[in-house]
Amino acid sequence: MVITKSRLVLGATAVTLSTIAVTSLGIHSRGQALFKASPKELVDEVWQIVQRQYVDNTFNQVDWLAVRKEYLNKSYSSQEEAYKSIREMLKKLEDPYTRFMTPEEFKNMQVDTSGELTGIGITISQDEKTKQLVVIAPIEDTPAFKIGILSKDVILKIDGKSTEGMDTNQAVSLIRGEPGTKVTLTIERNGQQKQFEIKRARIEIHPVRYSQKQTTIGKVGYIRLNQFSANAGKEMQQAIRDLEKQRVNGYILDLRGNPGGLLFSSVEIARMWLDKGTIVSTIDRQGEQEREVARGRALTNKPLVVIVDKGSASASEILSGALQDNQRAVLVGTQTFGKGLVQSVRPLEDGSGLAVTIAKYHTPSGKDINKHGIDPDVKVELTDAQRQDLWLRERDKLGTLADPQFAKALEVLGKKIAGKTTPTAEKTQNTQL
Predict the structure, then answer these.
(1) Which of 146, 235, 327, 341 is least surrounded by Cβ atoms within 10 Å, i.e. has the fewest?
(2) Per-residue pLDDT tens digits for 286-330
(3) Annotated catalytic residue 339
(4) Where are the alpha helices (DSSP H) in 223-281?
């Protein structure tokens, strides 16, 4: 890898960040460009980056050399004309995660690492097949979350404007806005259309929440990880150390609705739970692998169960896949989202930016989870109605025995603590609720 890990983001979240400004990228911007590249130079700069770094050296069966000739033979009288050509050029790759951002869009994407943001609190992606805008997950306790937006919702309209043919950069200009103003989303869910009027707000995000729970199996540490931001590792470390002092018997790690984030953050947190073994392999265009491994510095070796759902994406899938494949944890819940791509985000000479897919990742056992996701060891399905009741109307039941997925996780954890089961022994169970 020629890009430092602090600048690597994972599939769905890369699009998310440029769309609704959800979390920090850890990018070091050039700030004001030292000089303004000519329009043609900018087009060639983008072409060169893709030529050197794009994950598929066939460029998705596109003659990339012919593309350069086509677009450099054009005359450009303005940056805007160059921007249009760059987007046309990148569109030929048919990769919604490799995308160009104007200076304003790039600036909007670079959110302060403090964890504060302005928006409605959703992460979205563009479906690779249908090209529709899809909600990966609403961020907990944000306006979108509270009003009832769910994972896998398809955004059909923004303030009445159809999203057909709209890319994520166009969506950001419509969804973003000043705190207190409103935006209306028309979404499709299970074949039915719903409309949501959402008030934008300034949002402060704490990626980790935890508590010690008194249960029938003794003290249990319950940790919810909402996203893999720059400070998630620090907060996770504090949570584990505090719960260890309280002498918990085991842990339940809740990754439901976690859309992902920074690659280094997922690796950092995995090392807190794993003493040995591979965490993730990233595979570049030459098929070369770079492996991230545990370093023998786990903060606890106590039994662990992880809860996942269809809103658990990207970095969440790296963490849960590493814990599952290394038989460190049992996964309870539903199939995860399925995003296994890594982007590098680059500032360009005129202050604009480029996100380019540079790698895919595999779990330790070699599974490519892109588009499929990770299957839980113990399946516990919730209907959309059940999920809305639990997450919106009866939030006090989340992480309690009235939460079916938590209740099953606690049951599984009890067996692990008692030494009655192993992760592989639970794979035959299938709970439908």
Answers:
(1) 327
(2) 887 789 999 999 999 999 999 999 989 999 999 999 999 999 999
(3) yes
(4) 232-245, 263-273
pTM above 0.90, yes or no: no
Q: Which amino acid is at 290?
A: E
**Cα dist from 2 to 6, 7, 8, 46, 101, whole Å:** 12, 11, 11, 17, 22
- How far is residue 341's CA from residue 368's CA, in Å, rounded to a whole number? 10
Structure tokens at 215: 């249960």
The answer to whether the beta carbons of residues 409 and 252 sit under 8 Å apart is yes
What's the pLDDT tens digit per position in 377-387?
999 999 877 88
Catalytic residue among 339, 360, 379, 408: 339
Please state, in angstroms and as integers, the Cα–Cα distance from residue 50 to each residue in 54, 151, 194, following that order.
5, 31, 39
DSSP-derived letter for residue 142 is S
Q: What b/e string do you get for 311-330 counting C-beta neighbours within 10 Å, with b at 16 or more?
A: bbbbbbbbbbbbbbbbebbb
Q: Are 334 and 310 in contact (CB under 8 A)?
A: yes
* E runs forming strands in 120-171: 122-126, 133-138, 154-158, 161-162
Residue type, 221: G
What structural domains does the chain harbor? 208-340+359-432 (3.90.226.10)
Among candidate residues 95, 284, 309, 325, the one labeled active-site is 325
Tokens of 404: 């079916």
Separation CA 375–CA 395 (nearest Å): 26
**Which element (helix H / strand E) includes 198?**
strand 192-199
Catalytic (active site) residue 310:
no
Query: What b/e readout covers 383-420, taking b as 16+ CB neighbours within 10 angstroms?
Result: eeeebeebbeeeeeebbeeebbbbbbbbbbbbbbeeee
What count of other Cβ atoms lies within 10 Å of the Cβ of residue 281? 18
What local confidence, expressed as pLDDT, does residue 392 receive? Answer: 62
Evaluate whether 398 touches 213 at the Cβ level (below 8 Å).
no
DSSP state of 134: E
Parts of the chain with a pLDDT under 50: 1-7, 11-35, 112-114, 421-433
Residue 325 a catalytic site member: yes
Instruction: Identify which of 409, 223, 216 has the alpha carbon closest to the alpha carbon of residue 330.
Output: 409
**Catalytic position from the list 18, 314, 320, 344:** 314
